[in-house]
Amino acid sequence: MGRVAVIGAGAVGTALANALRGGGLDVVVGVRSPAERGQATVAEAIADAATVVVAIPGAGVEAFAAEHGPALAGRLVLDATNDLGAGHAGAMHHMDAWASHAPGAVVCRAFNTVGHENVSAPRFSDGVADLFWCGPESARKEAERVISATGLRPVWVGGPEAADVLDGIARLWFTMAFAREHGRHLAFRMLGGAPGA
Ligand SMILES: NC(=O)c1ccc[n+]([C@@H]2O[C@H](COP(=O)([O-])OP(=O)(O)OC[C@H]3O[C@@H](n4cnc5c(N)ncnc54)[C@H](OP(=O)(O)O)[C@@H]3O)[C@@H](O)[C@H]2O)c1
Prior knowledge:
The protein is of the alpha/beta class and about 200 residues long. The chain has one domain (about 5-180): NAD(P)-binding Rossmann-like Domain (Rossmann fold, 3-Layer(aba) Sandwich). Helices cover about 30% and strands about 20% of the residues. The protein contains seven helices and ten strands. The strands form three sheets. Strands 3-2-1-4-5-6 form a six-stranded parallel sheet, sandwiched between helices. α4 (about 95-100) links the parallel β5 (about 75-80) and β6 (about 105-110). α3 runs parallel beside α4. The longest helix is centred in the last third of the chain and has 17 residues, at about 165-180. The site of NADP nicotinamide-adenine-dinucleotide phosphate (NAP) has 22 residues, from α1.
């Protein structure tokens, strides 16, 4: 099993790094100014990793993909970012930027549909939260191994073209957490369906 690089040490990056380590994975955190044990520069973290989880501000994704695209070739990328620059109704993902700058990477959208608290605490009194994600079907085994390590149950929504659907789930989360005031420890669960499908 390869190493996981988590890029960004903010709320999401920290929650994911802790959860993935708790799940037994080998994790390095890539940051612009490494200061702590377990941190490396972004380039070093990517170079050592099979999977790269991107947890930086959404507005920085295009530049990040342009800078690191070549190094990401052959690696699994789990993009957890949301770009709210165009407002909640606009696209929150940058799948076009990934496709043009990092054509050799296997890019998925994951961890962007729930607040970071739910990565840290995926168990609820009525069950484990689902983590809806999308990306190439060929990446399912590895992506779901990483997602499962956090304790969340992965649910594959479809290929990269399903990124808009995931944006919709993120919108639902924002609406229920904030507009409907249910709070941030809130996640979704798919009932029924064929296990493993
Ligand atoms: N907060 C949530 O609950 C939540 C949930 C789902 C998705 N998201 C999305 O996840 C992403 C991260 O959110 P967050 O709440 O963790 O943000 P955050 O707390 O502001 O942390 C962002 C991190 O990214 C780093 N960073 C910024 N630009 C970078 C670059 N070009 N290269 C490398 N590192 C860079 C920052 O480090 P520096 O010190 O170097 O600036 C910081 O550690 C956002 O896109 C957000 O929309 C957030």
